[in-house]
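Holo prediction. Input below; ligand is 2-acetamido-2-deoxy-beta-D-glucopyranose.
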Amino acid sequence: MPFPMMTLRVLSTIFIVGLIPSVAWGSGVHSLEPFKVDLSDKVSHMKDLIEKTNLPENEVNTGVGTSLGITLNALKSLKDQWLTSFDWETEEVSINKLSQYTTTIEDLDIHFVHEPSNDPEAIPLILLHGWPSSFLEFSAIVEPLRSNSNGTSTSRPFHVVVPSLPGFAFSSAAPVNWTVTDTARVFNTLMVDILGYKTYAVHGTDWGSLVAGELYGNFNQTVRALHLSFIPKTPYNREELAERNITLKPEEELPLDVFLEWQKTGTGYFQLLSTKPNTISLALQDNPVGQLAWIGQIYIDGSDPRRGTGPSLLTDNEILRTVSLSYLSGSFASAGYIYQQNNGAFNQEYTRAKTDAPLLFSGFPYNNGAWPDASIAMIGNHVNTTYHDFGGHFAALDNPPALIEDIRKIAAYWES
Ligand SMILES: *[C@@H]1O[C@H](CO)[C@@H](O)[C@H](O)[C@H]1NC(C)=O
Ligand SMILES: *[C@@H]1O[C@H](CO)[C@@H](O)[C@H](O)[C@H]1NC(C)=O
Ligand SMILES: *[C@@H]1O[C@H](CO)[C@@H](O)[C@H](O)[C@H]1NC(C)=O
Ligand SMILES: *[C@@H]1O[C@H](CO)[C@@H](O)[C@H](O)[C@H]1NC(C)=O
Ligand SMILES: *[C@@H]1O[C@H](CO)[C@@H](O)[C@H](O)[C@H]1NC(C)=O
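Structure of the complex:
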């Protein structure tokens, strides 16, 4: 049976799946298939294209550092490593250590990792990634969260679920006008109707935090805790904070500066994807080095400048793994549409979600956003903020031990 580690809670699911290939719940029929990543037949074409890609000999603009986007040197170095030290087959073996499945919900194929704990006291948890990321962002934190290895006396293990957002990796492209609200509904179906969890906790970052916010506000019976490393609202600038009499803690100064700089000089990709996604999508869908430049810049600029040194796992190899998944799974174009489909969703409408579930926040210095407690309290039942002195936008890669510790704090507030 493909489900040796599932808990008692979902035994009925296993039983029915064992008898017939699909299970009917409510209005939908959900099949559940074990899934392994196998894109090896596409690797030689990718390598061929990488090898044949000519980059300029010299920087066109010298002396501008990283201010105009990814540098030629950075791109050349990544490209060289892609051809010499990077090995997709090795990555596949490691990715396939995670138990993965696909199911169909509302006509979309949804790919997800499901790593349940053996402990009946474990808390069900869904981890939600953003763009240009993927389920891989959480690879290093799944097992520690599942097993509570390194846990404290108050922490508990989790049943860990990591779906691919529609359009990303192996989940179907989202149809026209599909929004994060729709994704939230589909993921609640995944957790409750398909995996059988009556209640669960949510962690989100980037676009995943917008999905998380929708889950938190729209499913207050099933979503019983929320942890975020990115608040799904545009931060207030200094004038807007002053108008509201909100003062910053010292730890909030740097991430606010990072946000304001990003807002001034770093949103080109955001504008393009929000308005004319076809142009970049079609240009780069079959261009691995192009995808590397486009995606690599976001990882390099979005992470702690100490990227790749402990505790950060955001190495060049990690960037290459992410871009390879984007290219090989053919999801570059479909992932980018999340911006256009949710144009305007990242805004300053701080409204209180209709829920009493606890909301916890983790702040990382090089994230592009600072949200003082007073702002966070405007969107939910804010109970805890923890700041760290290392890390950026991709916390699960930039500072995994800190994120693990903070997600474990959910246990202190968990009631269901
Ligand atoms: C998508 O939304 C736009 C704007 O609201 C609307 O004009 C269009 O008809 C919608 N398309 C579909 C296929 O629903
Ligand atoms: C901010 O503080 C000032 C002075 O105490 C007060 O007059 C004003 O009403 C406050 N504004 C808000 C939005 O609370
Ligand atoms: C949960 O949501 C329902 C429906 O929106 C609402 O009536 C109820 O007040 C909410 N519960 C809490 C505690 O906010
Ligand atoms: C809440 O956050 C603070 C740090 O701001 C931390 O000291 C405290 O232990 C946290 N509470 C829980 C329950 O983890
Ligand atoms: C586990 O604990 C060790 C020692 O306290 C620490 O160095 C490491 O970062 C921890 N790892 C995780 C994943 O929490």
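The chain has a mean pLDDT of 93. That is the main takeaway for now.
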